[in-house]
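Q: Sequence in, structure out?
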Amino acid sequence: MLRDVSMDQLTERMARLSPEKRALLMKRLMERPSGDAGRGPAKLATVDGDKPLSFAQQRLWFIDQLEPNDTRYNNFAAFLIRGDLRMDALSSAINEIVRRHEILRTVFTVRDGRPIQTILRTLTIPISAVDLRDLPPERRQEAAERRIREEARVPFDLAKGPLLRVSAFDLGENRQTGAREHIVTFALHHIVSDGWSTDILIREFAELYGAFALRGSSPLPELLVQYADYAAWQRDWFERGALDRQLAYWREQLAGAPAAIDLPTDRPRPATRDQSGAICRFDVSRELADGLRRLGRREGTTLFVVLLGAFYVLLSRYSGQMDVCIGTAVANRRRVEFEGLIGFFVNTLVLRANLGGNPRFCELLAQLRETALRAQEHQDLPFERLVEEMQPVRDKSRTPLFDTMFVLQNAPTRKLILPALEVERLATATPDAKFDLTLTLEERESGLGVEIEYATALFDAPTIQRMAEHYSNILGAVVTRPDIHIDRLRLSGDAERQRLLTEWNDTAVDYPRDKCIHRLFEEQVGRTPDATAIVFGGERIGYGELNSRANLLAHRLRHLGVGPETIVGVCVERSFEMVVGVLAVLKAGGAYLPLDPEYPAERLA
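A: Exactly. Output:
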């Protein structure tokens, strides 16, 4: 069956077909149902004229209108190439890909007040050649890395295009190996690509470069459908009633869902999202990864659900919330004719879990298994349309419906293999954070590679490193005890518990005996006004804000006559206000008397 054939195998088989047989095959595929998303034939867009945007493209277009220099949606890849790189073959390969895929010749403009995509009949992508050989050899790598970081953050103009940029940095000969070195970068806007598309681009580039370097012709079969066909088919499919069926499920699934997850942060959330981000990387051993797979099989589910379940536990423990929503991505290419296209197909699903009642971890897995299956069945509703339907409260500091993202890549990132050349994929520049947190896991022969992308406006690196340790500890615990109640899962490992219970509990610290505690506190305010002073109920308050609140109350107490020798009762539940009250009494010159609100009323009187 076609659905059991990989994309590479399918492409190879199609290449052996005659043009007539390929056309007949694609015609039948376009008429074949493919689950709910396949009802009705795909509607081909006309060759000429303006084309509608897909729903996902439409959302990115609106974001670009609001934030035209936003680079969060730049997809970027970089490769170090050792050997004699043929620039003519490089240019020919790139521009053949642009000729094949109309989406790479597309610009986005406005007609009658609505965004449209216009396909340019021809477009040549220039290769930006940067010669760094004039620099001293020891400075070339640093200069290339700096230029690459800059290139990754150059915004695209959706109306003018092109929305693909290719650069080649000539590093000259490596003094140790003697090999000529180049770094080649590919930058695409997300409105014309996704992660799957990047793999297609790399695969086609490798095949075309190999052919053109030998002065041959393209070995790739012509594409019989284009991304504009998908956009037209998507809208036609929803007009046939699929939209209502999908919406009904998601309305019920997300009814009453929390507006956000309130994770403790290292600093207050800015009024507007700051897209600055960083990545924390770590590994899960092969032994543990295999154990997690076996756990999934025993529980009748997948590695995806097991890893997701551990993430839910982590977020619930950090936030104190039992009702948690997480975003995840699906390729959204359920029709085989769209598998070989470059374009923005990926869709976002919102997965909701209820951790109330302290379930066992295996019970949580059973819940998530059903949630994931139902979500997959209803994956075709564009996230943009879901947001319109749910109408969450607009908050410029947050993304709608969820703040954290979970991704499992169960296929390794495609390698670029070029004839007579040695190629190494490079880690790209510091990312822009699309969400507060994005947990990405990649299956490898050595186990699992893990990345936590985080918003640096909210979190510091040590906080995320500790979170990574806690996630690893949860995985290690559930693989041996899947029946454990989730509140019994220990986040901290032995080393952290030693620090907390022994090292950090050694409070014998020398301090100036002639200073009052509120004066010592004020000195700390002067040193670190923005640092976190108190964490309570998932919220944080900094030293500066705590001092300001205490000062206001102290002035009020003085106005009421509080001063030296005055005893002030503080009858408050454990909270920020309790600490504010104690500091305020001391600042006013009085002495505080702590009173437990649980005492009988006659005792408090």
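Residues 227-254 form the longest helix (28 residues).
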